[in-house]
Structure formats: structure tokens, C-alpha cells
Design goal:
Blueprint lengths: L1 H16 L17 E6 L7 E7 L4 E5 L23 E2 L6 E20 L8 E3 L3 E19 L5 E23 L12 E16 L2 E12 L13 E10 L2
Antiparallel strand pairs: 1-2, 1-5, 2-3, 4-8, 5-6, 5-7, 5-11, 7-8, 8-9, 9-10, 10-11
Length: 242
């Protein structure tokens, strides 16, 4: 089970690796959405707010808040000419666009690491699980320029995000005599309620991360379970929903 999930994760990462750099004319999965961002560029000493209009072929930056009231773009002034074209004659140093906001993801735990408990050796489990994650996410778009055969410099975009928050979900765990100090004489898969904190990194819609959680066994054998109220760490993979 662990091997299967790891192979699935590697496949997903390989599929998204090809979208790490987006050139003009390609489907721009890494394009920033329209909205307000912080602009960091060598031309400015400090970060400044800008309003971004984005399409598959263009990114236009407008001064903010002079041209934007939160609903409509008003009285559009001159564009920020330094960043107003996808193809330029000279290579610029590039710039960053930063934004942050509420984050919601659907996660599955690839594996859980449980330390030694009641003399039972440490465990690496890959039981079935699913969880909802809520947190605050920061996204960074690195916009740079690369020379192309025509002699111009084409724009490239690299996007990643990172997030911190909490998760809750349902999973399963193996119940037997070993994990109940010989209380059980049979075996079954118990249902657990998972809760904890997480740190995630996002690449496109895929998120991966490390979590720290506690499982609550949802049956009467919980008081005999050696992992009751014992924290575990895990590696998760998921899909960003917003």
C-alpha cells in the first residue's frame, strides 16, 4: 500500500513538473488570477501594490489603489510599462507577485509514523484516510525572461505556494491483540477521527506536506488502544480547491 501511494505521488509530481515554466502561447496554468498583488522588483526600493490583469498571452500591471476600488477598475492611468509585454528586446531582471488568502484542500495521508508505544515498536502505516484542510496560504509568482531563438526575451512564470493550518478527517487503523495489549483476540479495521496541524507546499493544484496529528478511535476499544492520545507525524498529498 505504501509503495502504491508513493508511486502515485511520484507520477502526479512528474505530470506537474512540466508546468513549472510557462511560455507565451501555452496554456498558462501558472498565470496569476486577476486581483491585487504585492510587486517586488529591482526598480523599486519597497514592495508596492498593483492590480493584475492576466490572460494566456499577457500580464498587465496597473498602479493600485488609484485605479481600483475593489469592484471595478477606475480611470485607468498609464500602465507600468516595465512589465507590459510578453516579449521584449532586452532581458529584464524579472519580478515577483505575492498574494495570500484563505486555503482549503482535500488531503490523503500517504503514511503515518508512530513512535514506540507501550513497548510496541515504531510503525509506518498507510491506512486509508481522507481529510479537509483549512489554513492561510501565500502564493508567489516569479516572472522572468529567457532568450528565445528569434533574438527576443520571452516571459516565463514559476509559481509556488505555502500554507499553514489545521486538518480534520476520517481514517482507519488495524486493531488486534498487539495494539491493545492482548485485550483483543480478533482483528478488524477500526475507524478513527483524525485532527492536527499541517504545513503544505503547493505546485499548481497539487499540494504536499507534513502533518502532526492525533487519532481518536471511534469504538468502545479506544481505552485499550496503545495509540490513544498519542501524536503521529505523516506525509500528505492533496488537491487545492480554491
Amino acid at each position: 500500500m505504501v509503495v502504491t501511494r508513493v508511486l502515485l505521488f511520484i507520477f502526479l509530481m512528474a505530470a506537474y513538473a512540466g508546468t513549472g515554466c510557462v511560455e507565451l502561447g501555452m496554456i498558462a496554468d501558472n498565470q496569476p488570477e486577476d486581483g491585487v498583488y504585492l510587486l517586488e522588483a529591482p526598480q523599486y526600493i519597497c514592495e508596492r501594490e498593483v492590480y493584475v490583469e492576466s490572460s494566456e498571452s499577457d500580464i498587465t500591471l496597473w498602479p493600485y489603489p488609484e485605479s481600483f476600488d475593489g469592484v471595478d477598475i477606475l480611470n485607468l492611468p498609464a500602465r507600468l510599462a516595465d512589465f507590459d509585454t510578453a516579449f521584449i528586446l532586452q532581458a529584464e531582471e524579472g519580478f515577483k507577485l505575492k498574494t495570500g488568502g484563505f486555503d482549503i484542500d482535500v488531503l490523503t495521508v500517504l503514511f503515518k509514523y508512530r513512535p514506540v508505544s507501550s513497548g510496541f515498536p515504531r510503525q509506518l502505516n498507510s491506512d486509508l484516510s481522507g481529510a479537509i484542510y483549512l489554513g492561510y496560504r501565500n502564493d508567489i509568482y516569479r516572472v522572468g525572461y529567457e532568450r528565445i531563438p528569434a533574438g527576443y526575451y520571452g516571459r516565463s512564470i514559476r509559481h509556488f505556494g505555502y500554507s499553514f493550518g489545521v486538518f480534520t478527517g476520517i481514517g482507519s487503523t488495524a486493531m488486534n491483540s498487539w495494539v491493545t495489549n492482548d485485550f483483543l483476540s480478533s482483528e478488524y479495521d477500526g475507524m478513527v477521527w483524525m485532527n492536527g496541524i499541517a504545513g503544505l507546499v503547493g505546485i499548481g493544484e497539487i499540494t504536499v506536506g507534513i502533518v502532526l496529528g492525533i487519532d481518536i478511535l471511534l469504538d468502545d476499544n479506544r481505552k485499550h488502544w496503545i495509540y490513544r492520545n498519542k501524536p503521529w507525524t505523516g506525509f500528505v498529498v492533496g488537491i487545492n480547491l480554491n
